[in-house]
């Protein structure tokens, strides 16, 4: 019976260590900047890993008062590109934690 208790304590320590590593990795991701771009960098959106927009850059040549819809589309494309990069990085960095936990 004692062997089982020691094994449980070891597993709890491992889980606590893994939780701390997970929190550190998530904090690191949250401050990492990701840049999404559309149409040869005519529009660039910078976001942090926690999906907060920190910068928007729009090339002057793309600003056409007669074609606002194109600019809107470029902004959407750049935003979605940044979000995709965040999701990919999150899966790459945090996926190892999910794989280490049985049942995930």
Structure characteristics:
3 strands; alpha+beta; rod-shaped; 104 residues
What would you say this structure looks like, in words?
This is Nucleoid-associated protein SAMN04488507_100675. It is found in: Cytoplasm, Nucleoid. Binds to DNA and alters its conformation. May be involved in regulation of gene expression, nucleoid organization and DNA protection. One of its GO terms (molecular function) is DNA binding. Keywords: Cytoplasm, DNA-binding. The longest helix is centred in the last third of the chain and has 33 residues, at about 70-100. Strands 1-2-3 form a three-stranded antiparallel β-sheet. The mean pLDDT is about 90. The protein has helices at about 1-30, 70-100, and strands at about 35-40, 45-50, 55-60. The chain has a domain at about 60-95. The two termini are about 30 Å apart. The protein contains two helices and three strands. The protein is of the alpha+beta class and about 100 residues long. A hairpin with a 4-residue loop joins strand 2 (about 45-50) and strand 3 (about 55-60). Helix 1 (about 1-30) packs antiparallel against helix 2. About 60% of the residues lie in helices and about 15% in strands.
């Amino acid at each position: 019976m004692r062997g089982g208790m020691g094994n449980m304590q070891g597993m709890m320590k491992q889980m606590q260590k893994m939780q701390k590593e997970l929190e550190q990795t998530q904090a690191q991701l949250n401050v990492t900047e990701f840049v999404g771009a559309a149409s040869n960098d005519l529009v660039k959106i910078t976001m942090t890993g926690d999906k907060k927009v920190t910068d928007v850059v729009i090339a002057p040549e793309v600003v056409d008062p007669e074609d606002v819809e194109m600019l809107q589309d470029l902004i959407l494309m750049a935003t979605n590109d940044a979000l995709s990069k965040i999701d990919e990085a999150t899966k790459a960095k945090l996926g190892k934690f999910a794989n280490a936990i049985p049942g995930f």
